[in-house]
Each structure stands twice: as structure tokens, then as C-alpha cells.
Specification:
Elements: E1 2-3, E2 6-7, H1 10-27, E3 33-37, H2 42-54, E4 57-60, H3 67-77, E5 81-85, H4 94-99, E6 104-107, H5 117-122, E7 138-143, E8 153-157, H6 158-172, E9 179-182, H7 189-193, H8 196-202, E10 205-208, H9 214-223, E11 228-230, H10 233-241, E12 255-258, H11 265-272, E13 278-283, E14 290-293, E15 308-309, E16 313-318, E17 331-337, E18 343-344, H12 348-354, E19 360-368, E20 374-379, E21 384-386, E22 389-391, H13 393-400, E23 406-416, E24 420-429, H14 436-446, E25 455-458, H15 472-480
Parallel strand pairs: 3-4, 3-5, 5-6, 9-10, 9-11, 11-12, 12-13, 24-25
Antiparallel strand pairs: 1-2, 7-8, 8-18, 13-14, 14-15, 16-17, 17-19, 19-20, 21-22, 23-24
Helix pairs in contact: 1-2, 6-8
């Protein structure tokens, strides 16, 4: 790994993992949870691998959450230890100490009042054999964003993480020669599992950034010359808007992987114009996350597709009655494979519902074409039923984004006495203002009348969750409050 001027070889990584693993066996019981509240650091990856050697579980925490939200997650996970770095120290509260059995360690923070994690593990002595941990042992407890209610903790086993790594190797045609740039947060499976852990499993090199920064990412493209990176639509947009985008050399990049939400085709086209193929990956925290992905050799010819099923992964599309749908018919994505979470932490009812029969019910709608490629349509919970017809907000958004006077947008449903629901478009104008007439005209030529937004509401920015996704719940509330 390379991190902030440090170069960490595999020999040093192995030694650090061994030391931390021995310390964990002396300090914590098997199965203990370790809550991790830091920006990206090499120590977090050391901790994942050390937990794999000892049977402990790592609980990566989202540092974009509020202290109260973090306290709720800690209360649910009941960790035996909390690790905090200097960047996240302002989020720490006295209540958190009680929620982690009074054990708090610092990381890369000389001014912290808490003991330093690295100093603790450096003194550890071998305690027992570390090699015999069952593959079905839980390794990661990763919480969903919780935008629709209480966050759920997905339990990912060692077997799931290993299966996901195999999917990543196939997806990227990854080899030990690859240099992976990781700037997405490691508290999310997108940053941790799509490329980072798979690269370490294969003997590749990881260039780790503490957090995403457009300046640092473009500088890395030019100077470090990575061959692979994952960027979500929000970070891609930041890169494209940067003054150095067109001048930054990108020849080293074999591909940029993206996903997390519906990806605007305009973003993909803009990267393709620079000669870099963009491949979409579909999945969820519950699928570790790789379930469906686009092949590099199909990137330019199937723009907008989420691809084909990952190796050893089964995909079904089903209707509301659970029946398989036909070609080009929309259905809910069901996933079955070794990469699935074993369930939700301390929530048997939710686990039984989401993983019934060994299939994970994603809550996402897609279609499958005659060639076996999948195309994302929308979240089931986002579907607007207007006059008995299903209206997919993502379909309206794709059309709207073609209008140059629009910088960003989102569509939600609003209650309507006649139609049940009608679409409302929240629009962020581009520089120069929104051309409403052109926007309305684009809907007339591309969409059936019942899909047209009944209202267009201009806003300065769209509300977003801690993971950078559009906060649909807030927009629904705003839409419901609109006056007729």
C-alpha cells in the first residue's frame, strides 16, 4: 500500500496483521465487535485481516453521520472497542465510551487522551494459533444508510468477502500488476470490497487516500498512474467539473468502475470521450457488494447497462407475485450466491424477509434483454403509481438530464386526488438558468404523457444522505407540501 507518503510492503502488512491479531486474542473474546471511526487508513485494512485471523468482527462507522446516529449504531452493535482518529475525534461523545465497554483507542492522533492502537499491538506476544477460523465466521458488520428508518447491520462472513473478491478479480481482469486508487470511504462496501480488499488478496498495489478530494484524485491519475479506481456518480461529477479534468492524463486507467445509484449516461459518455471505459457494478451492502457487473469489452457498446451476473451468482427478476418475468419485462432483482450476507444483525424478522429461500430481495427493479444483459430501472419504493400505471422516476430523470440547462434533478411522487400519485421534478438549474420550455419539450418527445412531471420545482441543491445519495424521503415531504 501507499498512503500519505508511506510505502507498506506485504511483508510489513503481514507482520502488522500478525501483531494486531495476537493483541486481539489477548484483549477481546472471540466474536467481539470492533467499532472503527476513522478516515481511510492502512490500519483499517490491517484490522479487517486481523479480525479474519481471530474471529472478531469489524464495524466500520460512517463518519458523515451525526454523533447521535453513531450512538444508535454503537448501541445496536454493542462493540467491545472503539477506534477513533483525529479527523473523527469531534464526533466522539462520552456516551460512546459506555457503549463500547469503556474501551476507546486512538489512531494517528498524538493529542488524543486515549491510548494508541499501534502502540498497543506492537507490544503483543504470540498467544495461540491464529490459522483456524471457520470461513462462515462473521467478519464485517456493515450498516446500511438507514434513509427509510432504522439502519440495519449486514453480517458479512469471511466466505462472502472471499467470494466477492473472486467476483472483483473477474470483473476487472485484475492482476498483481494493477495499481488500485481507493478514495471512496472504507466504511462502505463500495470502497472496501469492490477493489481494495480484492487487490490485496491478489498481491496488487493499493494507493489509499484518506478521503475523496478531486485535486488529489486528478494528481494521482497524472503522477501515480493507477490502472483501476472506483468512483461513484457524485465523485465522477466533481472530477468532470474540475478545471484540470481535460488536461489530466488518463492513459494508465484500464477502467473506472461506478455504481451506488442510477448512473447518468452523460457522465459515462464524458469519461468515454477521454478514452477510458466505464463499467457499472450493481449490488448492495447485503451482496458484499458485487452481484452484476458490466464487462470492460462491452463498456462502449452497452452504455447504461449494469451488465451480467457475476461468476457463481444467480439472478432472478420476479413480479409482485414472485413469478419470473420475461425478456424486457421489469421485475425485482433477486440474488443468490456465496457473497450474500448471512442476515441482519440481531434482526431475525428482517433477515427472514430479505433472504427468504436463500435469495436476497434487493427492492430494485431491472429488465433483462435478449442477450442476457441487465438494465436498472428504479427502486421499488420509488415507483410512482399514477392512474394504475407504473412510473419510474429514474426513467424521467434520464430524459431530464439531457437538457443542458439542468445541472441535477430528482423525481418523486406526490399524492393526487384523481390519479393517486403524480411525478414531481426537483430541478437544480445550470449556470444561466433553467429552460423550462426545452425541458417540457424533451418529455413530450421521449415519454408517454402520464410520465410527464406535473410540477417542476427549482432548488439550489438536492438534499443528500450521509452516503451522498439523494434523500428521497425529504423530497417526498417537500412534494407533499406543495400548494396546488
Amino acid at each position: 500500500m501507499r498512503y500519505d507518503g508511506e510505502v507498506i510492503g506485504y511483508r510489513q502488512l503481514a507482520a502488522d496483521v500478525e501483531r494486531l491479531a495476537h493483541w486481539l486474542t489477548q484483549a477481546l473474546p472471540v466474536g467481539a465487535r470492533i467499532a472503527w471511526l476513522t478516515h481511510n487508513t492502512p490500519e483499517q485494512l490491517v484490522a479487517v485481516l486481523a479480525c479474519a485471523r481471530t474471529g472478531c468482527m469489524l464495524v466500520p462507522l460512517n463518519w458523515r453521520l451525526t454523533p447521535r446516529e453513531l450512538e444508535e449504531l454503537l448501541a445496536d452493535a454493542a462493540p467491545s472497542l472503539l477506534v477513533v482518529d483525529r479527523h473523527c475525534a469531534p464526533l466522539y461523545t462520552d456516551a460512546m465510551r459506555g457503549l463500547c465497554e469503556g474501551r476507546v483507542l486512538s489512531l494517528r492522533d498524538p493529542g488524543s487522551p486515549f491510548p494508541d492502537l499501534r502502540a498497543a499491538w506492537q507490544t503483543a506476544t504470540p498467544a495461540r494459533d491464529l490459522s483456524e477460523v471457520a470461513p462462515d465466521r462473521p467478519l464485517l458488520l456493515v450498516y446500511t444508510s438507514g434513509t427509510t428508518g432504522r439502519a440495519k447491520g449486514s453480517v458479512l462472513t469471511q466466505r462472502a468477502i472471499a467470494a466477492n473478491a473472486a467476483n472483483s478479480h473477474a470483473m476487472h481482469a485484475m492482476s498483481p500488476r494493477d495499481l488500485v486508487l481507493t478514495s471512496l470511504p472504507l466504511f462502505h462496501v463500495g470502497g472496501l470490497d469492490i477493489q481494495t480488499l480484492p487487490a490485496l488478496a491478489l498481491g496488487a498495489t493499493v494507493l489509499l487516500h484518506a478521503r475523496f478530494d478531486a485535486d488529489a484524485t486528478l494528481a494521482a491519475f497524472a503522477q501515480a498512474r493507477p490502472s483501476l479506481t472506483v468512483q461513484i456518480p457524485a465523485t465522477l461529477q466533481a472530477l468532470l467539473a474540475h478545471r484540470q479534468w481535460t488536461a489530466t492524463p488518463l492513459a494508465s486507467l484500464r477502467t473506472i468502475a461506478t455504481g451506488s445509484t442510477d448512473v447518468p449516461v452523460a457522465l459515462i459518455d464524458a469519461v468515454h470521450a477521454r478514452g477510458v471505459p466505464v463499467i457499472q457494478v450493481y449490488g448492495a451492502t447485503e451482496t458484499a457488494p458485487i452481484a452484476i457487473y458490466q464487462r470492460i469489452d462491452e463498456a462502449y457498446t452497452t452504455v447504461g447497462s449494469i451488465g451480467r451476473p457475476a461468476p457463481a451468482t444467480e439472478i432472478r427478476l420476479v413480479d409482485a407475485q414472485g413469478r419470473d418475468v420475461g425478456v424486457d419485462e421489469p421485475g425485482e432483482i433477486l440474488v443468490r450466491g456465496a457473497q450474500l450476507a448471512s442476515g441482519y444483525w440481531r434482526d431475525e424478522a428482517a433477515s427472514a424477509e430479505a433472504f427468504a429461500g436463500g435469495w436476497f430481495r434487493s427492492g430494485d427493479i431491472a429488465t433483462r434483454d435478449a442477450a442476457g444483459r441487465y438494465w436498472f430501472r428504479d427502486r421499488i419504493k420509488n415507483v410512482i403509481i399514477s392512474g394504475g400505471e407504473n412510473v419510474y422516476p429514474a426513467e424521467i430523470e434520464r430524459v431530464a438530464r439531457r437538457e443542458r440547462s439542468l445541472a441535477d434533478c430528482a423525481v418523486v411522487g406526490r399524492p393526487d386526488a384523481r390519479w393517486g400519485q403524480v411525478p414531481v421534478l426537483f430541478a437544480v438549474p445550470a449556470n444561466g438558468g433553467l429552460d423550462r420550455a426545452a425541458l417540457r419539450a424533451s418529455f413530450t418527445t421521449a415519454l408517454a404523457r402520464y410520465k410527464h412531471p406535473r410540477r417542476i420545482v427549482e432548488v439550489d441543491a438536492l438534499p443528500r444522505t450521509a452516503l451522498g445519495k439523494i434523500d428521497v424521503g425529504t423530497l417526498r415531504r417537500l412534494a407533499a407540501e406543495l400548494q396546488d
